Amino acid sequence: MRGHISLLGTYVHRDSLLHRAPLWVKAGGMVAVSSSVLLVNTLPATAAALILIGAAYLAGAALGLRHVAGPLRPLWPIALILGGYQWLINGPAFALLVVGNIVVCLLAARLLTLTTEGQRLLDGLVSLAKPLRCAGADPERFGLTLALMLRSVPYLIGSVQDVRDAAKARGLERNPRALVVPVFIGAVAYAHQTGEALAARGLGDPPDSPRSPRRADVTPHEG
Length: 223
Fold this sequence. Notes:
Elements: H1 17-20, H2 23-40, H3 43-60, H4 65-69, H5 76-90, H6 92-114, H7 118-129, H8 139-169, H9 176-200
C-alpha cells in the first residue's frame, strides 16, 4: 500500500516562530481566525484572514507555497460544485464568501498540524478531555481513538485510490464490484489487524476487564 498524505498534512520540521510557539497559542489562534470569519461573514474579513494565514505560512512558519496549495487540490471539485450552486442561488458574492470561509478554516487547521508534532496534538487533546473524567470519560482511551483515526483515514483513502488504479488498469473502472469489494475486504482486514495489535498490548480492553494489564494477576508457574 503506497503512502497517502492527509488533507491536513503532516508535521514539517522547521525552526520557526510558529513551530516553537506553545500549542495553546496556535490552537487558540486557529479557533479565533476560523470563528471570526464565520461570525463576521463578510468578504473583506475573509480576504484579510486569507492574507494573514498566507503570511503565517510564509513568514511565521517558514513554509513554502506548496504547503499552502497542498490541501486545495482535492478540494477544488467540491469548491466548484458548492460555489456554482451558491452562485446560482445567492449570487457571486455569496459564493465567494462561502468557498473563501471554507478555505480559511482548512488552511488554519492545516497550519496547526504542519507546525505541531502529532504526539503534542494528541497530548493536548487528552489534556482537554481530563476534566471529563469526573463524568466517566477516559482521556487516554480518547487519545488512543484519535490516534487510530488519524492513522486509519489516510490508509483507507489510499486503499480506495489503489483499488481504483488497479481496476482501471484491468479496464474495470466502471464495474462497482471491482471497486467496492476489494476496498471492503481491505478495510475489514485492516480493522482486524489493528484490533489484534491492541489486544496483544492490552489496550483494547476496558479498565475492569480481566484481560486488562491493570487488573490481570500474574501467577508464577510452579515447577
